[in-house]
Amino acid sequence: IDGFPRNFDQIPYSLYFRELMDYRNDPDFLVFISVPETVMDERMKNRVVCPTCQTPRNMKLLRTKEVGYDAEHDSHYLICDNPDCPDPKRMVTKEGDELGIEAIRDRIEADRKIMQQLLGLRGVPKIYLRNAVPVSEAGKVDQYELTPAYRFEGTGEDVTVIEEPWTVTDEAGQDSYSLLPAAVVVALIKQTAAVLGMEAKEG
Questions:
Q1: Are 128 and 32 contacting, i.e. CB atoms less than 8 angstroms apart?
Q2: How many CB atoms lie within 10 A of CB 146?
């Protein structure tokens, strides 16, 4: 899900589009998604691609079937598993991703200012979504809603893949579990239905 407006200059255009949509009586509501910066940072820093076919994966969050070990650097790496790749190779870090979220810091700060302004907008229903849940509140969600993370142990051909819930630090400094996109989408659908007065009737 992408955001609009992305800067203050686009706000008048978004209000203009809102006026246009009013001719169809489309309901207005705003959706705010809270994502810890550590989630964005680690997703960027751990991205890797195949040099041949450019298939993307993630060392921590989206592994391939084959995992190798680099004895020289004492580190593990992913091997492209795209069946259509003509020459699968060791996947490498995307240029610039080593900077993580700092590479888009200006955009993040601009988004934050716009969100603060939109939060003060009155008369428009708002939907609030969270991408993470504090570990202390993990009992409120099902295990299958948590984002799995992978780490690797072993050397040579004896590499073991360990899967566990992805733990991040949220903006309040709390250890939190990142939620899978599907869980956030379900929350979006439920809140959207409520905003539109379409709640399912019980019984």
A1: yes
A2: 20
Residues 167, 72: contact at Cβ < 8 Å?
no
Q: Are strands 126-130 and 30-34 parallel, antiparallel or unpaired?
A: parallel
Structure tokens at 20: 């246009």
- Altogether, the residues listed in the chain come to a count of 203
Are 79 and 63 contacting, i.e. CB atoms less than 8 angstroms apart?
Answer: no
Alpha-carbon span 1 to 10, nearest angstrom: 18
Backbone angles phi, psi at 160, to 5 degrees: -105, 135
pTM given for the model: 0.78
- Report residue 48 as tokens: 């890797």
Give pLDDT tens digits for 148-196. 999 999 988 889 999 999 999 998 899 999 999 999 999 999 999 999 9
Residue 71, token pair as written in the block: 């004895």
Give the residue among 121, 113, 126, 176 at the shortest CA–CA distance from 147.
176
Spatial distance between the Cα atoms of 142 and 169, rounded to a whole number of angstroms: 20
Of 105, 106, 176, the residue nearest 145 (C-alpha): 176
